[in-house]
Amino acid sequence: MSDSAGSGESGGVAGAGQDAEADNEPPHQAPPLPEGNSSEVVETSEEGEPPSAKRPRISEEGEQEQAAKLVEMHGETPAQSDLLQEDPATPAQREPLQCEEEHQAGEEVPVSGGSEEECHQNGDGGHEAPLEEEEEAKPEEEHNGNGSADSPSEGQRLGLDFTQNPQMLTGSWTEYSSLPENYLKGCKWAPDGSCILTNSADNVLRVYNLPPEIYSYNWDLLPEMSPVLRMAEGDTIYDYCWYPKMNSLDADTCFLASSSRDNPVHVWDAFYGEVRASFRPYNHLDELTAAHSLCFSPDGTQLYCGFDKTVRVFYTERPGRDCEERPTVVKKQGQSGIISCFGFSPCQSVYACGSYSRCAGLYSCQDGTLLALLPTRHHGGLTHLLFSPDGNYLYTGGRKDPEILCWDLREPGKVVFSLKRNVDTNQRIYFDLDLSGRYLLSGDTEGVVSVWDTLTAPPDGNEELLQPQLRFQAHWDCTNGISIHPFIPLLATSSGQRQFPWPGDSEGDSASEGEGGEAVLSPQEIRQDNALTLWWAGPLSPAAEGNHEQGTEVVEA
Q1: What is the DSSP string of 119-165?
Q2: For the segment 195-253, what is each residue's pLDDT rounded down to a tens digit?
């Protein structure tokens, strides 16, 4: 990533407009950007060095004491809690340092587009293996460079607990109140769990550090979170993603990619919030065109970008315009529509594409050959999809679609079960799986988070509706984003949606008008909740259990 594009390219090329919004909502006037440099860093170095968003590190002794508390509370041995003894400092907390380890970005796996050795960090988990056997089957070589940050087995040891409502810890609200209708559009934990990334309607990507108080159960001391980095795009952000081999101990791997309307794909440095490089896709008229979806290959060597009936593949170490084009429609056969989301199989050289034509396709990583086209079962265009950790199942969800469908990829076209959620807008509403593949979580338009235990699905797989194990009111507005921490029982949710002050304007619904013919605003119409929130979804310590009341409302299924 030595070829720096500079911030001069961030403006992109005008005239290459796209008809679809990133969150699939009607085009709108972009809100004013915050004042200052587009790559402004929140905090500056006291030593007068180049600014980096960092703060004093927790002492090593303090970290071990905090880790020991968690170990004692969960009944683990020191060998099981090595992960918690790692320095929780994030890329935004540390000064960039030269990594002495041999594992560098792009050097771990040859550039091949995919192979069976390229198993995603989720691990293969053993097909149909019991949960306990999955934990033991995780190979050591799948860990990050420091062998800890994204360890699936460690995530299993702490474990999620959905026998009770998750407890709200902290969040960020003030940050999104300075501009009207600055609703969020999702949140994503970094692969090493050190920080979290958000997207919002003001076209700014924000990075938040994981509060260190969480390690020691000092939840009464948790302040409101503030971003340590702000990265402003020039227009509506279509998609964004972390580099999958991101390791906060190696500054070279700490970056993310984003795509926005009328702009090239930008690669952002997660230490300083500056543009490292750009990937510039052009259409058949040699006009710059924006990618509607982004996803790195599991080994991080390639960046897949979705366009109308086309996937373009860039090589991460070669910024610029050179790419491989993979049309999804050949001789009028294939997957039509804009490619809106990607997912990579954790154990096979296969990736899935979802499109706004309401279907999903499976493709070969080597050359993009279409392997299978799943039937059109969704009511709206696909906005998100996920593979199960064992690679046997694919979960898909769409806009204005009340169902998440679970497909059995061993019998392409077969739906094992469906999950009901309330999605009645075009907004992209994410869902997430834990590392074992057991729990699937999703928000909905009403702000409710549902938790499904996929192990309770009927073995015959006759498309039964799977009932949620737990439902709780996370936000008063739409809960559009949810992300499960890689190794701590911690959830992040984001909320908000575009508000229409006159309900009749959007749908032409006369039923909402009063007797005098004037539109009436319901309380739901005027209630806004634009926030990032962290939730504890693990066992509570005895002290915390006695001092903290549940801050969430149980929702009857």
Answers
A1: --TT----TT--HHHHHHT--GGGS-TTS-TT-HHHHHHH----SSP
A2: 999 999 999 999 999 988 887 777 888 999 999 999 999 899 999 999 999 999 999 99
H-assigned helices in 479-532 = 503-507, 523-526
Length of the chain: 557
Return the percent helix, strand and coil in the chain, to nearest 5.
15, 30, 55
Scored b (16 or more CB within 10 A) or e, 198-229 reads: bbbbbbbbbbbbbbbbbbbbebeebeebebbb
Main-chain dihedrals φ then ψ at residue 526, nearest 5 degrees: -100, -5
Nearest Cα neighbor of 244 from 190, 164, 286, 319 is 190
> Residue 140 corresponds to which tokens in the numbers above?
């050591």
Helices (H) and strands (E) in the chain, counts: 6, 32
Q: Are 68 and 128 in contact (CB under 8 A)?
A: no
Listing DSSP states for 470-485 in one string gives: EEEE--SS-EEEEEE-
Per-residue burial over 14-36, b = 16 or more CB atoms within 10 Å of its CB, e = otherwise:
eebebebbbbbbeeeeeeeeeee
| Predicted model pTM | 0.70
Q: 59 near 252, Cβ under 8 Å?
A: no
**In the beta sheet, which residues pair with residue 208?**
196
* Cα Rg of the chain (Å, integer): 22
Alpha helices in 363-439 (DSSP H): none
Q: Parallel, antiparallel, or unpaired: how do β-strands 382-387 and 431-433 relate?
A: unpaired
Express each pLDDT in 277-325 by its tens digit: 999 999 888 899 999 999 999 999 999 999 999 999 999 999 999 999 9
Output the CA torsion sign for 297, 408, 395, 339: positive
pLDDT tens, residue by residue, 394-437: 999 999 999 999 999 998 888 999 999 999 899 999 999 999 99
Task: State the Cα–Cα distance between residues 70 and 81, nearest whole angstrom.
Answer: 8
